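Protocol step 4 of 6.
Sequence for Cytochrome P450 71A1-like (Dioscorea cayennensis subsp. rotundata) entered exactly as in the expression construct, tag removed. Do not edit the line below.
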Amino acid sequence: MDSTITLLYPVLLVLLLIVPVLLIMFLHKKQSPKPKLPPGPPKLPLIGNLHQVGKLPHHSLWQLSQQHGPLLYLQLGQAPTIIISSSDLARQVLRTHDLESCSRPSLFSSTKLSYGCSDVAFIPHGDQWRELKKICVVELFGTKNNSTLQSIREEEVESMVTSISAAAAASMDCAIDLSDIFLSCANNITLRAAFGKRYQITGKYEWSKLHMMLTEVQAALGSFFMADYIPCFAWIDILTGARARLDKIFYDLDAFYELIIDEHLQQIMQSHGQDEDILHTLLRLQKETDHLTNDNIKGVLMDIFVAGSDTSSASLEWTMAELMRNPETMKKAQDEVRKVIGMKGKVEESDLQQLQYLKWVLKESMRLHPPAPLLVHRETTQHFKINGYEIQPKTRVIVNAWAIGRETSSWERPLEFYPERFKDSSIDMKGHDFQLIPFGAGRRICPGIDLGIQTVELALANLLYTFDWKCPDGSQDINLDETPGVTVHKKYPLFLVPIKYELK
Ligand code: HEM
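Step 5 output, structure tokens:
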């Protein structure tokens, strides 16, 4: 009996302490009503709704939005998230509430790749982002550098066409891996724009090694799922070797930077009369403004690697795949470019303005296959309301550009590849028309939008002008399955047979 009483004392004591705390919590909850969050499915402990995000998140999020509405609330691991799947809501978030929602979440992979958010793509919204974005728009990708960038694009596209011609001449009916050729061409353009000829001057670095680094960097983004969503399980990323792979990339990159970010090399470049490349501009601005750190420079270069080439090559790949599935459209696009260019032998950038149908083809391809279907995740900094729902600060914002491109209220027969829908339409991809936003919109819109469009249009026009194309098995049945990732590529590389077109 005595021992039972002695046991009861501590229990009573704990209850005495706990009951008032629970009571206070209960009353507090009653007094402050829960914010009215957007609708969404029930969540599980710890993982929230992560189990409902499949391998291809733009598809599964779109399906969830069909059930719960175009403004969807999910708890992805520990992260409160809203998913936007209509052009009307995209306008509200990316225009009306752009300022409140234009920061970026601090994710493990992006923080690491951006040298601790020293770049422009992953840095949170603020003065430093504003300054770096201005440098990108005005100094790096603007009209100042246009003629250098234009000649790099034209040379690289020409060399791609030459190598395809050589393959076509070497063996008839030989299918070539266009996915690989496009990525290589886009990587060449990015690397040359970034580093000019300095890699040749060092004489110590192999181009192929740079390519490999680029591909690894592109793959690293988004591969730290645990650290980004359920931090207490971050050790899984270590066990899978993902972190070790990323550390290796940085080790290699640093060795490369040591060679090329070098005063002495800078002088040699100038004495050789080399054009100013992107690295050169950044180093010059560092001297002039005293604001840019070395990490800023490396971070911006990393953005260009990650954001610049993979997206352009994916877009080319999807456009060619759709054209092969739609031979009438292919013929119209070829007729246009062959008529405009005539016997000139190649398409130059100054010709692109006349290729109206080709421009519609690209828009149509970007509508159905935006290379970054969920854009780049944003994060809110302040509270705001949409359609009566409360959006709290530090909520992640995912805009499903892929779903918006298939919205039945904006697009007639949305699943059809039909470029003519853009005839007599003023819709462009530059962030004004929210039913077509493959480059995003608002403050965070892609600063490389013109470079991206020019690269894809130029490459496409030359491929359609110079060759007829056929599938290796003679069918038009191109598989459109996708690979998961921030940038979505075709699951199966695009193998096509080029047939040199004889100019008449
Ligand atoms: C077809 C080609 C391209 C596509 C589809 C594309 C798409 C995108 C998208 C969807 C975003 C996120 C926008 C948002 O958050 O609302 C973005 C951001 C960005 N892109 Fe592109 N991009 C392309 C080409 C390029 C090129 C060629 C460059 C540079 C050489 C570039 C550099 C950037 C940078 C630096 C950002 C971050 C901007 C910021 O956070 O303020 N992109 N891009």
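Step 6, annotate. The longest helix spans residues 294-325.
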